[in-house]
TrEMBL record:
It comes from Halobellus rubicundus. This is Branched-chain amino acid ABC transporter permease. InterPro entries: ABC_transp_permease (IPR001851), LivM-like (IPR043428). GO terms for cellular component: plasma membrane. It comes from the Archaea. Keywords: Cell membrane, Membrane, Transmembrane, Transmembrane helix. Coiled coil: none annotated. It is found in: Cell membrane. Its main location: membrane. The keyword Transferase does not apply. It holds the Pfam family BPD_transp_2. The chain crosses the membrane at residues 21-51, 63-87, 99-124, 130-147, 177-196, 226-244, 265-289, 295-316. It is a multi-pass membrane protein.
C-alpha cells in the first residue's frame, strides 16, 4: 500500500505529511534533554552529528560523484580550531585570541571550509580512485602533523576545553550543546536541500553522471566540485566543533581518526546514497547496530555489525530510503520535467 506520493523527479520532502512529520520530529528531539538521562541525550547528540556528517558527505560523494575519504580531517580540524579559540591557554595562545563559544564553533566550520578551498584545486587534479586515495592520504598527513604538535593538541594526553554555555540550573551546558547541535542539523539539512534542488545541484548531478558530457554542454566541473567540497567540509567542521564542545575533551588520535569517515560512509550507504533524507534512516540504524548489538552478542558485536552491513549492501544497495520508496511511495506525473528543462538551460548559460 502506497502511503506517500511523489511527483516524477521530485522529492519526498515536498510532501506536506513528510514536512509535518519532520516538524514533529524536531520538536520531539528538542524535548530530549529535559525528559531523558544524560547518557541517552549524549547518544542522540552523536546521532545528530552522524546526520550532519552523512548529509555533508553525501553532497560531495552522492551528488557530485567525488568519493572523498578525508572527511575526518575536516571534522577534526573544526573541533581543534574551535577548541583553540574557546580555550586558547591550552595551546599556548594569548588570552586575546579567545572568542565566545558560538563564534568559535562557527569559525571551526569556516576553518575547515578554508582548508578545502586551498587544497581543492590541487586534489581535484586527481580523479576516480586516485582522488579517494589522495583525500585519505591528506587526512593521514593532517592527523600525523597534529599528533606531532603536542603544544597545540596535547598529544596523547588530549586537549581539555573550558567552555560553559549553560543557563545556570535551568539548562546545563550539555543540554544547550544538544539544542545547538539540533539547530545545526536542521540548518545543514535545509541548506543541503536548497543546494541539491537548485541549479548547483543539477550541475553536480551532471558531472556525477558523465563529467565529459557535462563539460561539453558548458558545465564547469571544477566549479561544482569545489562548491560541493567546500560546503561539505564546512558542515563537517561545524559537526566537529559541536561534538568537541559537548564532550569538552578532544584527542588528535580519536578526533582525526579515519573511523569518522568510515562511519559517515556507512550512514549514507545504510540510508541510501544520493538521497539526503536517507542519512536520517542511516544514522538511526547505525546507532542501533553500534549500541544494540553489544547487549546481544557481546564481544562479537563489531564482527556481526560488519556482516550485517555487507549483507545490506548486497541485498539492499539503494538503502533504507530505496526500500521505503519501493513499498510506500507512489510516483505521480507533475510539472517536474518543465522545471528541470529550465534549470538545465540556466546551467548551460552559467
Amino acid at each position: 500500500m502506497n502511503l506517500l506520493k511523489r511527483e516524477a523527479g521530485g522529492s519526498l520532502a515536498e510532501d506536506r505529511r513528510v514536512q509535518a512529520l519532520g516538524v514533529v520530529a524536531v520538536l520531539a528531539l528538542a524535548a530530549v534533554p529535559f525528559t531523558t538521562t544524560d547518557a541517552l541525550t549524549g547518544l542522540i547528540l552523536t546521532g545528530l552529528v552522524y546526520i550532519m556528517l552523512g548529509v555533508s558527505w553525501d553532497l560531495i560523494a552522492g551528488y557530485a560523484g567525488q568519493i572523498s575519504l578525508g572527511h575526518a580531517a575536516f571534522f577534526g580540524m573544526g573541533a581543534f580550531v574551535s577548541a583553540w579559540l574557546t580555550t586558547p591557554g591550552g595551546a599556548g595562545l594569548p588570552p586575546s585570541a579567545q572568542l565566545p563559544l558560538l563564534a568559535a564553533i562557527l569559525v571551526g566550520g569556516i576553518a575547515a571550509a578554508l582548508i578545502a578551498l586551498v587544497i581543492g584545486p590541487i586534489i581535484f587534479r586527481l580523479t576516480g580512485h586516485y582522488f579517494a586515495i589522495g583525500t585519505l592520504a591528506l587526512a593521514a598527513v593532517i592527523e600525523l602533523v597534529m599528533l606531532d604538535r603536542r603544544d597545540l593538541t596535547g598529544g596523547a594526553t588530549g586537549y581539555y576545553i573550558n567552555a560553559d554555555i549553560g543557563l545556570g540550573e535551568m539548562i546545563s551546558h550539555g543540554d544547550m550543546m544538544f539544542l545547538l547541535t539540533l539547530l545545526a542539523t536542521v540548518i545543514t539539512v535545509a541548506v543541503t536541500y536548497y543546494i541539491v534542488k537548485g541549479p548547483a545541484g543539477l550541475g553536480m548531478k551532471a558531472i556525477h553522471d558523465d563529467e565529459d558530457a557535462a563539460s561539453s554542454l558548458g558545465v564547469n566541473p571544477l566549479k561544482y566540485k569545489m562548491y560541493a567540497f567546500v560546503v561539505s567540509s564546512f558542515f563537517a567542521g561545524l559537526a566537529g566543533a559541536l561534538y568537541a564542545h559537548h564532550s569538552l575533551y578532544i584527542n588528535a588520535q580519536s578526533t582525526l581518526a579515519v573511523t569518522w569517515t568510515v562511519d559517515s560512509l556507512i550512514v549514507v550507504i545504510l540510508g541510501g546514497m544520493g538521497t539526503f533524507v536517507g542519512s536520517f534512516f542511516g544514522a538511526a540504524l547505525f546507532l542501533l547496530l553500534d549500541n544494540g548489538l553489544s547487549a546481544i552478542v557481546g564481544g562479537l558485536a563489531t564482527t556481526v555489525e560488519g556482516i550485517l552491513i555487507i549483507l545490506f549492501i548486497i541485498f539492499l544497495p539503494s538503502g533504507l530510503y530505496g526500500l521505503i520508496e519501493d513499498n510506500l511511495v507512489e510516483e505521480i506525473s507533475g510539472s517536474g520535467a518543465d522545471t528541470d528543462v529550465d534549470a538545465d538551460a540556466e546551467i548551460a548559460n552559467d
